[in-house]
Amino acid sequence: GTDAYRQEIMAEFLENAGAVFRNIAACLHAPEGTDPGDVLHHHIVGAVDWGKEHDFTVVCIFDATTRQELELFRTNKVDYHFQYQQIAALCETWGVDELWVEHNSIGSPGFEALDRAGLPVVAFETTGTSKPPLIESLALAFEREEAQWLNIPVATGELEAYERKVSAATGRSSYGAPSGLHDDTVIARALAWWGAVNRPQAALRRVAVTG
Q1: pTM
Q2: What torsion, rounded to 10 degrees, do the Cα atoms 139, 44, 1, 130 define?
Q3: DSSP labels, 84-99
């Protein structure tokens, strides 16, 4: 099961609290300026991390066929209706097959709006239980150079700063940006990778996934 896998594969990996992502530089070679026409028949996954007041809403567009990031879009325009239009336009430009969207408190109105607009949404419930496998999957992809991402300094900075904290009381791991920093691009990329890797179960599922 997942736990055995996490213990074996991630054991050494999870020992040190602190930095989560390693081998970052080796994975920043996704070509810039890919033409949407060149990926027409590829399987394209999108992922949305909703920004709260001071955060950015980030959309990651990822080519699951070549395992390369195509675009990383960030906006902190607070008008959500404008954001929905921008997300819809990105999906149309790239021919997104599945759009993974956070479906928590802040995410649910956005999820519903994108669903009503006819976008191919798949819900991801971010919880204390679902988040560690999400982040560890992306960390492992960096470790093994399984995907290539765009070389965007602000996003690289978020990867480098992202950290794991271990609760002294429970021994459980939690993940996040250090106080005062953002992790929007990390979450959007982690969701896009999750969607690319978990495609078989997700491809036909357009209803909310509860966990």
Answers
A1: 0.85
A2: 70
A3: HHHHHHHHHHHT-SEE
